[in-house]
């Protein structure tokens, strides 16, 4: 089992890495055109509203696979009255600090076979099962 974990880690690290190439973000951004107007940017910088958070949760499928915390969107909807204060505070804090707590951003990697009896990692479709609060 440990060997499978190690091999999986190496495969996806290589697949999702840019290697030794360093991207100069300033240079990259300079070469791209602005797609967002100043007003749109202002709107994006506004503090997220409690109602926006509720609308986002209600727009999601209630029974999609949950992440490591085990909570589906249905849980959030069914217990909204009880959890909304803490959830709204957590989400606003993410926008304010621009960071997500380690235990909140935990996720599972599930490998879905693209064919019967796959023999290599490229024959799987990886999906990430993240916590509903991260979604």
Describe this structure in words.
The chain is built from six helices and two strands, in the order ααααααββ. The protein is mainly α and 135 residues long. It has helices at residues 2-16, 25-30, 38-45, 50-59, 73-78, 80-97, and strands spanning 107-113, 124-130. The model has no long low-confidence stretch (mean pLDDT 86). It has one domain (2-130).
Overall morphology: extended
What is the ordering of alpha helices and beta strands? Answer: HHHHHHEE
The secondary-structure class comes to mainly alpha
Distance between the termini: 30 Å
Helix count equals 6
Mean pLDDT: 86
Strand order of the largest sheet: 1-2
The largest sheet is: 2 strands, antiparallel
Number of domains: 1
Poorly predicted regions? none
Strand content: 5-15%
Number of strands: 2
Rg, nearest Å:
19 Å
Helix content: 40-55%
Topology:
Layout: H1 2-16, H2 25-30, H3 38-45, H4 50-59, H5 73-78, H6 80-97, E1 107-113, E2 124-130
Antiparallel strand pairs: 1-2
Write a brief caption for the model.
A two-stranded antiparallel sheet has the order 1-2. The radius of gyration is 19 Å and the shape is extended.
Using brief descriptors, characterize the structure shown.
mainly alpha, two-stranded antiparallel ribbon, extended, 2 strands, 6 helices, 135 residues
């Amino acid at each position: 089992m440990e060997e499978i974990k190690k091999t999986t880690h190496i495969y996806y690290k290589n697949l999702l890495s840019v290697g030794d190439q360093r991207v100069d973000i300033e240079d990259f951004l300079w070469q791209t055109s602005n797609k967002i107007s100043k007003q749109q940017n202002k709107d994006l910088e506004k503090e997220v509203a409690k109602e926006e958070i509720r609308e986002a949760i209600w727009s999601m499928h209630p029974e999609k696979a949950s992440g490591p915390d085990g909570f589906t969107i249905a849980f959030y909807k069914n217990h909204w009255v009880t959890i909304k204060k803490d959830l709204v505070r957590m989400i606003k804090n993410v926008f304010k600090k621009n960071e997500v707590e380690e235990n909140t951003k935990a996720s599972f990697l599930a490998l879905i076979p693209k064919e019967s009896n796959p023999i290599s990692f490229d024959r799987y479709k990886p999906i990430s099962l993240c916590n509903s609060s991260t979604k």
